[in-house]
Design goal:
The protein is α/β, with parallel strands linked by helices. Helices cover 47% and strands 12% of the residues.
């Protein structure tokens, strides 16, 4: 009987050891996964901002096209919304100086979307820097006085992009809510994608010609967002309290 108890006690200890090892293995895996999921910065280096603390940041990317930007500006002006940030590619801005002028006159914040709408993760450092500087040169010629924000043209970036932007005095801004409007999933779906927005969120929308349903969805979106929190320019969202960044492994 004593031998039977000793054997089972050993088995219990072994079982407990297995449970503990499994627990710590799972904990380690979870920790590593948690560190991997955020992919927007380095621990000690510059980081990309994807969320703020107060207000909601409504942003529009424009990389190409001749049709959709003006109707979106019409809706914003009609609804008396002056707090929105437009990220413009230099190539687009170069071809549409009148639209850029209208944005400036209406008081919208303008950031760089690069010049040629290329994937920065596939370019050499000097190519990235040259593309950013060319876009800033174009925007400054169009009376955009202060350019401090950069959004990677395709949404893809790495540690090199963050460092180059930082060297140029720019903050890389990503997003926390993606409207998916460029896919044209239907006006109701675009609105649904944005309904989950809350205080501090940065919303990605598009005013390129690929986004054919954005202008139609925008009035309802603006109504929803106004009930959630104040719409603010990104520079205010970033400066207004604690911002949230993510790490690049």
């Amino acid at each position: 009987m004593k031998f039977f108890i000793a054997v089972n006690g050993r088995k219990v200890k072994q079982g407990m050891l297995i449970v503990l090892i499994s627990f710590f293995t799972a904990l380690l895996f979870f920790s590593q996964s948690s560190l991997y999921i955020p992919v927007f910065g380095t621990k000690d280096g510059p980081k990309a901002i994807y969320k703020g603390d107060k207000g909601i940041g409504l942003t529009f990317n424009i990389g190409w096209g001749d049709v959709q930007a003006e109707p979106i500006l019409d809706v914003l002006e009609e609804k008396e919304v002056r707090s929105a940030t437009f990220f413009l590619s230099g190539a687009w801005a170069e071809k549409h100086p009148d639209t850029v002028k209208r944005m400036v006159e209406l008081g919208y914040e303008i950031g760089s979307l690069g010049y040629a709408y290329e994937d920065y993760t596939e370019l050499e450092d000097e190519e990235i820097k040259r593309d950013i500087l060319k876009s800033i040169e174009i925007l400054k010629k169009q009376d955009v006085k202060e350019i401090t924000l950069l959004r990677s043209p395709t949404g893809h970036f790495d540690e090199r992009t963050l460092k180059i932007a930082d060297q140029l005095g720019l903050t890389v801004v990503h997003w926390s809510i993606n409207s998916q409007d460029w896919k044209n999933p239907g006006v109701d779906k675009i609105i649904e994608n944005i309904k989950k927005a809350k205080k501090g969120d940065i919303i990605l929308m598009h005013a390129s010609d690929s986004a054919t349903q954005t202008a139609e969805a925008l009035p309802e979106i603006l109504s929803i967002l106004k009930d959630k929190d104040e719409l603010v320019n990104l520079s205010i969202l970033i400066a207004n309290g604690k911002v949230r960044t993510k790490l690049v492994p």
